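Dear Dr. L.,

I hope this message finds you well. Following up on our conversation about the binding site, I have prepared a predicted three-dimensional model of the protein together with zinc ion. For your records, I am including the exact sequence and ligand specification that went into the calculation, followed by the structure tokens. Please feel free to forward this to your student if that is useful.
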Amino acid sequence: MKAVCWHGSHDVRVDTVPDPKILNPGDAIIKITSTAICGSDLHLYDGYIPTMKSGDILGHEFMGEVVEVGPGVKKLKVGDRVVVPFTISCGNCFFCKRDLWSLCDNSNPNSGLVEKMYGHSPSGLFGYSHLLGGYAGGQAEYARVPFADVGPMKVADGLTDEQVLFLTDIFPTGYMAAENCDIEPGDTVAVWGCGPVGQFAIRSAFMLGAARVIAIDRVPERLQLAEKAGAEIINFEEVDAGVALKEMTGGRGPDRCIEAVGMESHGMDAMGVVDKVKQAVRLETGRPHALRQAIVACRKGGTVSIPGVYGGFVDKMPMGAVVNKALTLKSGQTHVHRYLRPLMERIQNGDIDPSFVITHRLNLEDASRGYEIFKHKKDNCIKVVLKP
Ligand code: NAD
Ligand code: ZN
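The resulting structure of the complex is given below.
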């Protein structure tokens, strides 16, 4: 089959690789009909995540048709059309039973290095390095899906791929980021980053009762899309976002802050060994550090919710601000399984049509160009969908 393979920093290629096979009784093989490139893939593309091997298949946002099931699979059958959460979960461990799916204890067999760094390991993820299970990803014609009775959810009749594809990651991620804010009536929510995750966080914040949302980015098309959802906007290249936020909130600061940027703004590598040269270059650009800015901007007693992905050590975190302003910090890889059903219902009810983020539809063969366009926000790119 054809698959999008990582070959080093800024080097992804479409290779011909062996078709996936059922390895465990609970596996299913999915013929992929739609798959997307995520901001998290850019961390791999930029070479920030260690333990990638040349030839690893990328992709964790995918859906398609079940073409084969292992003997232990009870709920899925050949021909079912499913969306697949990017987090892999057994459904049976201490964490899965507590609805903490992205912390599954049984899906990351190669977790040695992560455990050494962080004390414990999160769940395995599709297409996201050997630190996180070494699973082949879904930017391919087929994928093997472990724990097939636990993760994949059948798509309700009448919904298109484009309406449901983002249930695999970015819609639940934006939603959980907003939910983690514990929004109260009248709250102002500031969202750093108007990429796909930020866009869903903005809409979810309104769905969960925010009175105002203030969106921060520097890409005009992304800010415009935020404005369309009803957000007020700040272009951080034109004004100091910290100062603007204070002015816009009567000096108090936003009640809730969502950091939907991640490592991208800081140039840290995932091992915490800061690449001095790269970092110096970035500092010269004067680009703000989104997470620090969010912590400093947040009002006293407020919440900072961090869907943005980090690895290694985030240096110079203003913990003094966290303590002295009594902030609540919440984060995590998304517990996608928790949100599949309720968010599919929201799509069916017409609360939201997630396809609004798609700007580019490419053949799988054009994946390399897709990464290039998405990385550099060329051609007004917000989200790229690949069609195998
Ligand atoms: P993206 O790269 O398309 O979007 C990031 C946006 O942040 C860009 O529009 C960029 O211009 C903007 N930005 C950069 N520096 C900024 C700054 N200082 N202030 C404000 N905005 C700034 O990526 P995405 O797909 O939207 O993903 C965003 C983050 O969410 C990534 O770190 C990704 O890894 C993470 N993510 C996390 C999960 C999870 O489970 N927690 C899931 C998916 C994605
Ligand atoms: Zn993703």
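In brief: The longest strand covers residues 28-37.

With kind regards,
A. P.
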